[in-house]
Amino acid sequence: MSADLESDLRDVLTDRAGDVRPTPDPWQRTSAGIRAARRRRAAVAGGVLAAAVFAGAALVLPGDSEPPPRPTVASEFLGRTAGPDMATWPVRGSLSGDQAFLRALDAHVQRSVVDMFARVVYAGDVGASRIVVAVTPSGDPDFPDGSVAILAAPRGAAAASLETTGQFPVEPGQEAVAVAAPPRGGSTSYVVLAPSKRGFADMSARPTYDDSGVPLRTWRPLPMVNGVTAGELPASEAVGVRVRVTAAAGYDGPLAGAYVDVPEGVPPSAAAAASRPAPGGTAATPEQVADILRLFAGTHGVRAEDADVTVQWSGSVTDTRRAVLVLFRLSDGAAFQSLRVGEEGPDSSGSQWDVFVGRPLPRSATAAYPAMWLDPEPESRRAPLFVIAPGATAVSVVDGAGRSLYDATVRDGQASGAVDRPDGGWLVREWTLRTQAAEGSETSWPTHGAYDDDPLDLHPFL
Amino acid sequence: LPFHADKAADEEFRAFVVARWPSLLRTAYLLTGDHGHAEDLVQNALVRTHRHWRRIERTDAPEVFVRKVMVNLNSSRWRRSRLREDLTDLPPDRPGHRRDDVADYDRRDELWQSVLTLPPRMRATLVLRYFEDLPEAEVARVMGCSVGSVKTQTSRGLERLRSRLGLAAEPATTAGTTQGSQA
Fold first, then answer.
1. Eight-class DSSP state of A301
2. What whole-number distance in Å separates Cα of residue A119 and Cα of residue A105?
3. Secondary element (H or E) of residue A286
4. Which string of DSSP letters, residue by residue, matches B27-91?
5. A448 vs A387, A390, A429, CA distance in Å?
6. pLDDT for the residue A109
7. β-pairing, A382-388 with A414-420?
8. Least Cα separation, residue B130 to chain A (angstroms)
9. What is the C-alpha to C-alpha distance for residues B160 and A372, in angstroms, rounded to an integer?
10. Cα(A132)–Cα(A149) distance, integer angstroms
């Protein structure tokens, strides 16, 4: 090695770089990463709304038409065309006048993993947390209407200490945001933003459920000053909250990013559920069941040990995809269902996503309650369709006009195929799933009913 | 595998990935010091690049964008994990090498191990300067900082390496890379 350090450094770096093993198929690896990232973002973004993302149920995919208007207050805010870009909002919040902090924050957001084109629209201390809300512009294929990112840290933290805790898609017509920081000291800090002082908002705490699984809510108004309201909730009550903001276009949905910490480990109910035989051919492990249970408990604000757990089905739905369908029942009789799907890639990489998390079912639901989901590609006229129907021998899907879209024989409780994109996009809320039992009886599982677009009301969507 | 409605953009992105992956992987390896982490880093950077591809490709500098993302992601990963892998094990002597060769190999390895101990952005500055041979202005563009900051990071990085290797400090400035000499 010579005395010239810079020359030696060049040589050493070149030598080491030359030792790098080539990657067998870079494009395969990149495209797998893109798909996994999409699923992860959708699952994280929606929480329980992930069901709608993957089932194409309530959301309008790019290029699709608007969903039919619903006879509810909520529908007044959904389905409208997008209003002015949130990226034009001024910075609001208790730190909006701190220019030094905002400069450091801009640099941090640009450098951080959120998005290089993100723009800060809120910065402030709320309760025990410092919260920053940043929006990304529209045009991203994964977030066609833009996204909202949350950065959080303890109250008073430096800009560089803020961690990205969530990124959520902006829905068509959405012109307000409601976000929450991770729980801190047993409390969850939240921020609701509307475009101007014209906005007003109300909030409902976690719902109760009627016998058919429909959430019941009680509302209270939130004070809005300059289009902003912020506050704290007990962490366990922040999940399941629904916020309605009326503004030019508004928002109606959960506090994005709200969750509660659920202890690690395998609760006895999860271990017991995994030990019982379930249809599908591949037993779920206690750890898998526990993980699904924890996610349900965390997104619904219930204690994991309070849920009775039943694995309804566990097995392969394709050569590379596995699914686990789980039924939860709380002590008051309320029933919920979660579906997790995992995919293994050819290079042993893998990804998993939650098609839905704790959708409420009728209290009468049993382990035979079926599930159906689509994997729609916006560019495609056909979409893979999957049905899990424990105990059924045949299934069919009909649209709102009674036309048959899909018929299949059920094997080992599962059927899969493909369906054409219906007129108007991938809207399945008017579809009906019919299952046939071995003795010939047929059961219809309607996909629409007395619901009001509640974030936790996924009952209509099979 | 249509990701964008614009199939031409998809094809251009795919061609970019296939053509630039090996080069990006080499840089990523020098940033991370680990082959697995390097592949993950390139993959993650390209996934993020894909999201903005139609905007980025118009800039005529998509590779700058990817390298920028790689540097930032690697810094974030380092901050998050604070993991310091054990990088002190020396490889076994190679049979048949003369004593001088072995000594030279050891010194080069020591230099490489020292590079890996540098903070990620300082290491990235040296990799971009001395492996990619990018001008300081281009390094600044990738790093998202000023040219002065690049000079400072370079100077301090070299000083740290000299210190770790037990070399004498550079007595005078060299080609604009030794402004500010505090480690």
1. T
2. 10
3. helix A286-300
4. HHHHHHS-HHHHHHHHHHHHHHHHHTHHHHGGGT-HHHHHHHHHHHHHHHHHHHH-------PPP
5. 18, 22, 6
6. 83
7. antiparallel
8. 5
9. 60
10. 8
Helix (H) and strand (E) counts for chain A?
A: 7, 24
In sequence order, the β-bridge partners of residue A228 are A193, A225
Structural element, H or E, at residue A402: none
Q: Which two tokens stand for residue A410?
A: 């059920």
Nearest to A131 by CA among A156, A113, A107: A156
Q: What is the pLDDT of residues A213-242, one digit of tens each?
A: 888 888 899 988 888 999 999 988 888 888
Distance CA B154, CA B130 (A): 10
CA-wise closest residue to B121 among B81, B164, B77, B88: B77
Give the mean pLDDT of B95-117: 70
Residue B68 touches chain A, beta carbons under 8 Å: yes
Q: What is the pLDDT of residues A204-221, one digit of tens each?
A: 988 888 888 888 888 899
- Determine how β-strand A404-409 pairs with β-strand A392-398: antiparallel
Q: Which residue type does A231 have?
A: G
Residues of B in contact with A2 (CB under 8 A): none
**pTM value?**
0.57
Q: Does B43 touch chain A (CB under 8 A)?
A: yes
CA dihedral A29, A33, A35, A36 (to 10 degrees): 130
- The answer to whether B176 contacts chain A (CB < 8 Å) is no
- Secondary structure of B104-170 in HEC code, one letter for each residue: HHHHHHHHHHHHHCCCHHHHHHHHHHHHCCCCHHHHHHHHCCCHHHHHHHHHHHHHHHHHHHCCCCC
Contact (CB, 8 A) for A9 and B111:
yes
CA distance B90 to chain A (A): 15
- B34 touches B120 (CB < 8 A): no
Give the pLDDT score at B170. Answer: 63
Give the model's pLDDT for residue A453.
Answer: 52
| Half-sphere exposure for B18 (CA within 13 Å, toward CB) | 9
Point out which residues pair with A112 in neighbouring strands.
Answer: none
Chain B residues with CB-CB distance to A112 below 8 A:
72, 76
ipTM field: 0.79
**Cα angle value B128/B133/B138 (rounded, 5°):** 65
Judged by phi (left if over 0) then psi (alpha if -120 to 50, else beta), residue A398 lies in beta
Nearest to residue A312, comparing CAs of A353, A248, A361? A361
| Nearest-CB residue to B111 (from A12, A116, A143) | A12
Give the separation between CA B102 and CA B121, rounded to whole angstroms.
Answer: 31
**The pLDDT value given to residue B60:** 63
Q: Which two three-digit tokens encode residue A54?
A: 């993957």
How far is A47 from A300, CA to CA, in rounded Å?
10
pLDDT at residue A66 in the model: 27
* Residue numbers in B near A151 (CB within 8 A): none
> Residue A364: CB partners within 8 Å, gap ≥ 6?
A211
**How far apart, in Å, are the Cα atoms of B157 and each of A64, B83, B162, B180?**
54, 20, 9, 11
